[in-house]
Design brief:
Blueprint: H1 3-21, E1 41-43, H2 44-52, H3 56-66, H4 80-88, E2 107-108, E3 111-112, H5 120-123, H6 131-134, H7 141-157, E4 162-165, H8 166-174, H9 176-183, E5 194-195, H10 209-219
Antiparallel strand pairs: 1-4, 2-3, 4-5
Helix pairs in contact: 1-7, 2-8
Length: about 220
Amino acid sequence: MDLNQQIAVLKQIYAVYSEFISRFTIFCKKYCDTCCTGNVTGTTLEGYYLLKNMEKDQQSIVLEKFASPPSKRFQPKLSFNRIAKQCADGEDIQEAPVSISGKCPVLLNHQCLVYPYRPFGCRCMVSAKPCSETGYADIDPLIFSVNHAFMQLIEHLDAGGLSGNFSDVVNFLAIEKNRKAYENRLQLNHRILIPNISISVLMVPPEHRGQVEALLKQIG
């Protein structure tokens, strides 16, 4: 599968998820940015999709903002598929602690500058109640299961690429030689970003497997 095909599948994943989430009562709305922090993670495929779709002027503004992410931000040590594999193998999970982060660097007047091309880590952070009042996102258990399955699927789609804090992903791809290496399927290395791997086991609880499988079939 070439890069354009991967992007087409990624867009289909986003579309299927959007239709799925529309079945629920969700509080999240325009100007609600409580959950928009610098801790969002993403893949190189999502970062590439974001940069590819922006006009040059917009891209320069966005890259300038991503270049100054919160100093304290979540930088994972393990990808979603690596965590799933270690869980299946009965291994202990040694993940980095989640830092209290500042606001996402691409927010402007409580609005996202990259909203149409935001990564799945942003799309799946939804809540039935205002997070500012409860202090947490109120997520339906089925949504939670679908979120994890789709995150695994996106990593699988980008196997051979990298994952990490989304600011770090975008800053990596902002360097032309890195972006060209990604386009040409060369081996990627980074001191902070972590390698994506294929799915070995999909972590979905038994009570949600039928509904998750139905959504995956829509993606093809």
